Structures are given as structure tokens and as C-alpha cells.
Amino acid sequence: MSLQNIVILGTGGTIAGTAASTSDNIGYTAAQVGVDQLVAAIPPFAKLGPFVTEQVAQIDSKDMSFEVWARLAARVNHFLAQPDVQGIVITHGTDTLEETAYFLHAVCRPAKPVVLACAMRPATALAPDGPQNLLDAVAVARHSGAAGVVAVCAGTIHSALDVQKVHTYKVDAFDSGDAGPVGYVEEGSLRLVRNWPVAHAESAQIAIKMIATGVIPAQWPRVEIVMNHAGASGAVVQALQAQGVRGLVVAATGNGTLHRDLEAALLQAQAAGVRVLRATRCLNGRVLPTPGDVLPDSRGLSPVKARIELVLQLLAGN
Ligand code: SIN
């Protein structure tokens, strides 16, 4: 291994997807090509490698689970602990990329770069975006001073905290909202516009507890997401409560508003011991706390990231 060793972990996704026709960008099967093959298909890697590669999973990321995340976090931590590893790149589907990014950010809290690479078009496409995204991800992982969990897509570097998939089809499918991107990759060079992400204290506590005890729980606390909308009722909350849900994230409207019937059900669930967090279904902005809020806000986390945070908090016994 050289001092600048980069590890590339494969998890599947469209970047590893194949279709029957080169003109088909949507009718493909994700997670078909192995990470070794993806790396071998990028000629400039011949000069940058060799890389350590490992297939941690081979799935369409819509099927991502806490079990796969735990396995991935263990491999990330294993490689991060090696002094000759400079950074880690993870190939991943776009659909739940922001969730994996947040999970690794919270649990691994890497001082080295952990870079998620993805694609909107399958590997068999006439003009696949995966090879360039993977090349750019390696450029980020090799960058001196790079740190934390980020995602690279269409030449833009997004922090794990802010990244969200915002488009169903375009190759530039991700956005960092109000925060803006960390920077850009331009012909292999980085143009940074803000700091690398740092894990916040709350996640740190939880992560330390998990990692210190090496826990991979047989059962993860069940946390579900419910949404506020016109005509929302408390029925879903009550049904979930009857099934023993431990936590609920509500994707509220606007600045955290809730239909009165849904709010009543959430208050009742919280009083009965279910942990509730209020996020917003708006793509930008956050729920601004006001004095006397009974249902706590998600501190700027989107509903899917707030769900992960709540699972980790419940796991840590908070
Ligand atoms: C996936 O998320 O695994 C499939 C979709 C994609 O990668 O764009």
C-alpha cells in the first residue's frame, strides 16, 4: 500500500446497473457490475491506482437497510484506522445516498474523506455519468485536507449533512439547499467554497457509544415517517403506535405546521413514550424552534436524516 492509498467499496446502485440497450437510461437493473469492473473501466485509474476494492453489498439502494449500513460502517472504520489509507470512496445508488451519507457521518465521524460516488445512468448507457463521478470522487478522496463524509455528483461536492436528491432524471440530481455545496471538481482539481463537514456533538455521542461497544443490534428501533398534508388525520400515527413504533418523524408542512388532528395524535403518542421529531417537507429551510414547542424540531435535518438520528438516539438509550 502506498501512503496515498484509496479504498473503493462497492454497494451497487445505477452506477453498477445494466440495461439491454445503450439508449435505455431508465429500464435497467441496478447493482449488476462488480466494483472491480467499474474501476477497471476507467483508464486514468491505471496511473492513480492500484486501489484496494471490496464489494460490501450489491443492491439497489431503495432496498438499503440498517444491517447493510452497519456492515458498511464497520468496513469504513476498518480502513479508516489504517495509517496508509488516505481516503475511502463508496459506489452507491442515488435513491438513498443522502441517508447512507448521514448514517456514516453520524456513526464513523471520519477525519479522513469518505466520498460517495453514484450515477443517474447505468454503466451500459451511451453516455454514462458513473465513470466521471467515480474519477471525481477519487480526486476528492486524494485531496490533501479533505475530511468527512461527502457525495460527489456531476462535478459538485455535497456535505452529508446537506445533500438531498432533488431530481428524478437529470444527471445533476443532487442539491445542498441553503448551505450550498462544499465545492466543485474541475478536471481533477478541487475548487472549495466552504468547509468540510464535521459531525455535530449529538451524533458524536451516539456514535462513540455504538462504536465503543461494537453493537450491531439484532433489532433496530422502529422509527417511521408520517407526513402532514391537507386532510391529514391521526390514523397512521395510531396504527403505528398499536404496532409498537418507538419513534416518529413528521414531515410537517412549512415551518413545522401540522393538521390539528395529526398534531393531537402525535402529542398523544409522545405522551405515551414514543419519541417524536418535527421536520419539514419543504426542500429548503428548517423548522425554526419557538419557545414552548412541545414537539421538538429536527434541528435542520430532513425527514429521512432525522429518522436515522432518532434511531441512533434510541439505540444509544437517549
Ligand atoms: C439506486 O438507488 O440504487 C438506483 C437508482 C440510482 O442509483 O440512481
List keywords for this structure.
Rossmann fold; single chain; three-stranded parallel sheet; 9 helices; eight-stranded mixed sheet; binds succinic acid
Q: Ligands bound here?
A: succinic acid
Q: Return the CATH architecture of the largest domain.
A: 3-Layer(aba) Sandwich
CATH level 3 topology of the largest domain: Rossmann fold
The end-to-end span amounts to 41 Å
The shape is globular
**Helix percentage range:** 25-40%
Q: Could you give a short account of the major beta sheet?
A: 8 strands, mixed
Q: Spans with pLDDT under 50 lasting ≥5 residues?
A: none
Radius of gyration, rounded? 20 Å
Helix and strand element order: EHHEHEHEHEEEEEEHEHEHEH
- Number of helical runs? 9
CATH superfamily of the largest domain: L-asparaginase, N-terminal domain
Question: What does this protein look like?
Answer:
With 318 residues, the protein is of the alpha/beta class. It has 2 domains: 5-192, 3-Layer(aba) Sandwich (Rossmann fold), CATH 3.40.50; 221-315, Rossmann fold (3-Layer(aba) Sandwich). Helices cover 30% and strands 21% of the residues. The chain has 9 helices and 13 strands. It has helices spanning 35-40, 45-48, 66-80, 97-108, 130-142, 201-213, 235-242, 260-271, 303-315, and strands spanning 5-12, 52-59, 85-91, 113-117, 148-153, 156-159, 164-165, 174-175, 183-186, 189-192, 223-227, 247-252, 275-280. The strands form 3 sheets. An 8-stranded mixed β-sheet has the order 2-1-3-4-5-6-9-10, sandwiched between helices. It has a 3-stranded parallel β-sheet with strand order 11-12-13, sandwiched between helices. Helix 7 (235-242) links the parallel strand 11 and strand 12 (247-252). The chain is globular. The mean pLDDT is 94. It binds succinic acid. The site of succinic acid has 12 residues, from loops.
